[in-house]
Design a protein that fits this description.
4-stranded parallel β-sheet; 7-stranded mixed β-sheet; about 425 residues; binds 6-O-phosphono-beta-D-fructofuranose; Rossmann fold; alpha/beta; 2 domains; about 30% helix
Amino acid sequence: MKNVIVGQSGGPTSVINSSLLGVFKTAKDRGADIVYGMVHGIKGLLDRDVVDLSQRIKTDLDMDLLKRTPSSFLGSCRYKLPDIVGNEKTYEQIFATLKELEIYAFFYIGGNDSMDTIKKLSDYGAQVNSPIRFVGVPKTIDNDLAITDHTPGYGSAAKYIAATTKEIIRDGLVYDYPVVSVIEVMGRNAGWLTAATALAKGEDCEGVDQIYLPEVVFDVDKFLKQMGDLLKQNRSVVVAVSEGVKVADGRYVCELSDHVDYVDAFGHKQLAGTARFLAGKVAEKYGVKTRAIELSSLQRCAAHITSRIDVTEAYNSGGAAVKAAFEGQTGQCITLKRVSDDPYMCITEPADVHFIANVEKKVPLEWITDDGTNVKPELVHYIHPLIQSEISPLWVDGLPRHIRLHVKSTIKK
Ligand code: F6P
C-alpha cells in the first residue's frame, strides 16, 4: 500500500484548499492508494480522527468546488507537539497510527508554527529509522515564512485588503465633515499584509494617508500629532495599522486598552482592538468622527476575490510536496522562488524545514520609509504580481457555493 496523509493547520486562507487539492490529485496521479485527511490537523491524528478523502472528493465538480472553497476543508488546529525528549509516548502513538494506516508520506499545510510539526515528526522519524517522509506545504496570509519568496494565501489576502482599502477610501470622501478611518490589518509581527493597503493608490485612488507596520516602534503621541496634521489638510483621513504594532516598552498597542486577551497554544496573544483604541484616541483628542475598521477574519477567507496566481501557486506547492516526498525527501518544506519579475515567474523548491519552523520573516526596513509611516515602491512592486487575475467562485442562487467535509472518521472508535 502507498497511502498518504495530509493535514491543514493554523489560520485559514482563501487558497489552502487548493494546496489540499494539489496534494490529493498529485498523490493519486503518482499512484497513492488512499489519501487520508487529518481532521483538525495533528490533533485529529492524535484523536484518531482521520478521513479517506476519496469518500468526499469524487468528481471533477468536487475538485473544482474544493479549489474555490475558502478556509480549511479538513478543519484546523493551533496545536504544538511537545518536545520529543520526555514525550516519546506521544510520538510512539503518532507513529503507531501512521503504521496502522500504512502511511508512506505525511503532508502538513501550514505556517511557521505548523512547520514545527514537520520538523519534530521528521526528527523523530530519523531517530527511529522510520521510512515515512514528512513534507510541509507553505501557507499563511501573514507571508512571514523564511526562505520562500512569499506564501500561498498571502496574494489573495493582499488583493482583498487592497480592494477593500480602495472602497473604504471612496466611502470616506462623501461627507463634507472630517472622518478618520483606521483600518486594522492582520499579520501579527510582520507587516506584509498591512503593506498591501499601499496597492490601493493609483490613477483612480489617492491611497491611504499613512501605513504603520509592526517592524517600526509605534508612538501613540506621534500618531495623534500626525492625525492632527492630516486633518488640517484633508476632510477624509484613512490610515492602515497592523494588529501587531507595539509601543517602545514592547506592549502591543491593542494591550493598551483594557480588554482581556486570549492566548493560544503557541503562546500567541489574540491581537485585536488596535484600530478601536487608536480611533477612540483620535475622537477624544480632535472631536471628529472616526471609524475603526478591523478587517479580521474577512481578509482570510475572501474567496470571492482570490488571486489566480495565488490559487495556482497554492496548488503547485501541494503537488511539489508530493513530488519531493515520492522522490525520497523528508524534513522539507516547499518554498516559492521568484525567478523573474517581468514577466513574473515563480518555481517551487524544497528547503530544510529546520530553517523555516518557528522563524518569522519581517518586512525589510529598507522597504519602509525613513519616517516609518509608509512603504517604499519596492514593496509595492514585490506584492503587485501576487494579486493578479481572479478565480470566481461557483455562484449558486446568488451566492458562492462551498464544499463541506461531512464524512465520518475511518478509524475513530
Ligand atoms: O494565520 C495567521 C493569522 O491570520 C494572524 O495574522 C492573526 O493574528 C491570527 O492568524 C489570528 O488567528 P486566530 O484565528 O487564531 O485568532
